[in-house]
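Lecture 7 notes: from sequence to structure.
We start with the chain below.
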Amino acid sequence: MALERIKAKMEQIRVEAEESSAKVDELTAKVKLLEQANLAKEQEITSLTHKNSTHEADVEKLEATNKDLKEQLDHIRMSSNQSEALQRRLQILEEEAEEADKNIRETNDKLRQTDVKAGHYERKVQALESARDQWEEKYEEMSKKYAQAKKELEDIQTEIGNM
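Predicted structure tokens for the same chain:
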């Protein structure tokens, strides 16, 4: 009986050992699977980390491009505003130039009219000077005739007085 118990105990230990060995094999297989899964996850993490850093670099490039585009847009808007201001200034200058041309034409017309009037008055002045000269000649002639007639009258009065 003691031998049987020992045999039964050994059998029980062998069964337990086989079960434990099977359990160890099963757990070893699970550990291998978990290690492979862990390795795959680490590789995936490495891959995702690389993708993330690539994406971050792309984001930085896109942000820089976006900043540049915003600056260009601001520059274009400013240029557009300057262009509009210059366009308005040009329009104002063109209007002022048209007004100045109109004033010049009016002034030239008035100048021509003044020249015509001046020519007319110069001819009148010449005619009046000519008439004055004729009157002066007539006056001198008449003065001479008057002086001569006065002398003749005095001579006649002297002759009458001598008589």
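Points to note: The chain has a mean pLDDT of 92. The radius of gyration is 67 Å.
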